[in-house]
Amino acid sequence: MTKRLIIKITIIFLMAVTLNGCAPRYRFLVRDKAAAAGWTKEQQAVSEHLSYRLLCTKENSDGTFEINHACLPNETVAKIVKQRLDDLNSVLDYKNQEWAPYLKAFPNLREEAEREEKIFKAVYNRLKLVDFHNQFLNYLGERSSLRPMDLDLGYDDKKVFIEDVFAAYPFTSSHIEEARKNGKLDDIQTVLWFNKMKFDRKEPDPSDPNDPNKFIWQPKETGIELISYKILDGPKPQEKKNDYIEGTRFTISGSSFKRESKPALKIFLPEGRPAVIVSDYDKEGEIGFAIPDAVENFYVNPETSESLFNGAAIANLFQVTEKERRIPPKDLPPLNIEIAPIGQNKIEIWEEKSQGWTVTLRYKNDRRDNYNIRVKIKDDEKIHFDPTASKQIEYFKKEWFGNGNVVEFFKSKPPFDNPSLAAVSINGTKVLLITIQGQDITGNITTGPNIVIQDTPYQIEYTEGEKRWLIKDENGDGIYEKKRPIAK
Fold it and tell me: How confident is the model at residue 423 (pLDDT cuts 50, 70, 90)?
């Protein structure tokens, strides 16, 4: 074991004691009791440190001492390490607006954080492995009831940091292994299940994670082979009950079929006890592969492998990891800046085309009525502070529900462009205006030409691909000769 790893383990041990809050409270408890007995400060300090030796060590017959691991629960250390993992995951998230700029500016910082994440993940898996194995033996009834539980719940680096975890923690049943050894364990059913989805889940676009309209589709591929085993009690079994089920993930690439080297799912079905499920969520090549992530009792024993697909046992094997959710944002296009003397040159942000642009998406239904009406009041931000001021409509909008989230902007026809309005009301397609003089002006914005708005929009917004565009008709001839990208 390297010196650096020994230092890390020591730090984890100290963190588990101090950050859990036990040491400060315990210290004051001991010293307060000693003070109440009339002891001096020196005697209080000696009693405190002696109590640590009495609590956390055991004296051997030869006068030497060894660590009493039961004084520090293994579960407590695991919680501390898990918190560090959660902190690292938050820092490494590309959507973290506080940390993302720093990690982009200093690439080595992200690499170091990812390396630390792997270390903490490996440590956390080892810590949980110890507790899971104790839990597994209890569920199967293979743990001696004479052995005190405290002996197995304490943190012990000799149990956590070992070379061959598979030999030390095999997660097998003596009943099953004996049948396998004697040639009585027979596979009685094989189920292959494969699913490939191009559009499985939406992930926020890291370039703008707060915009629900910006997202990235992520694919998913899931495949598992389930083999059911039975312990044969003779050449012709009396029933088809399973005794053990094993599931192994696989992938398909072209004509290639590749299984993982170790099973991801083990289901033990002991006689007279609930089923015991051992699950590994980590795929081959990931930190923690072949080390269980869950050990659970299953109170409804599956009669066949197919019945497992009705629950969470299979779905849990294909969880999306936090690392898979980290999608690096695309680099922004280069920003071109032109500097021109004031009053001499005009910098044009629009693309121009004499024949104009059109919206090629089909966003209107057959009745051409799949839209909402909105209205924009001119200088509405000023009217907000002076409700008595007269109003004038700046434009109407048709917001279409369909491809491209298209929005059409229309100017008003007279008299709906009246600059002296007291109130404006929109109810569906019906428009009601009240002038300052008390005159009512009403009309309907129908699907075709009407008395309220101009026959064609003067500008249109729409989304095509990953960009949102604005096209504009400058002279009212129905040709949108100007175009530019806008923010979504």
Answer: confident
State the DSSP code for 487. -
Residue 405 included in any domain: yes
Per-residue confidence (pLDDT) for residue 10, from 0 to 100: 39
Residue of higher predicted confidence among 233 and 13: 233
92 shares its domain with 208: no
Please give the distance of CA 331 from its chain centroid, rounded to a whole number. 23
Q: Of 413, 424, 475, 482, give the one whose Cα is nearest residue 449.
A: 413
Tell me if 132 sits within 8 A of 126, measured CB to CB: no
Angle at 288 between CA 283 and CA 294, to 5 degrees: 85
What residues contact 222, with CB distance under 8 A and at least 6 apart?
A: 193, 194, 195, 196, 249, 318
Per-residue model confidence (pLDDT) at position 23: 47
**Tokens representing 402?**
């369909």
The answer to whether 447 touches 368, Cβ cutoff 8 Å, is: yes
Q: Are residues 153 and 6 both part of a single domain? A: yes
273 φ/ψ angles, rounded to the nearest 5 degrees: -135, 160
**Cα–Cα distance measured from residue 406 to residue 395, given in angstroms and rounded to the nearest whole number:** 16
Helix, strand, coil shares of the chain as percentages rounded to 5?
A: 30, 30, 40
Total structural domains within the chain: 3
Tell me the average pLDDT across 200-212.
80
Query: Residue 37: which domain range?
Result: 1-170
Q: Return all residues near 382 (Cβ < 8 A) that are at least 6 apart.
A: 389
| 341 within a domain of the structure (yes/no) | no
C-alpha–C-alpha distance, residues 81 and 92, integer Å: 17
Based on the fold, state whether residues 179 and 149 are members of the same structural domain.
no
The structure tokens 């499985």 sit at 200
Contacts of 433 (CB under 8 A, 6+ apart): 393, 416, 418, 421, 423, 424, 425, 440, 441, 442
pLDDT at 16: 38
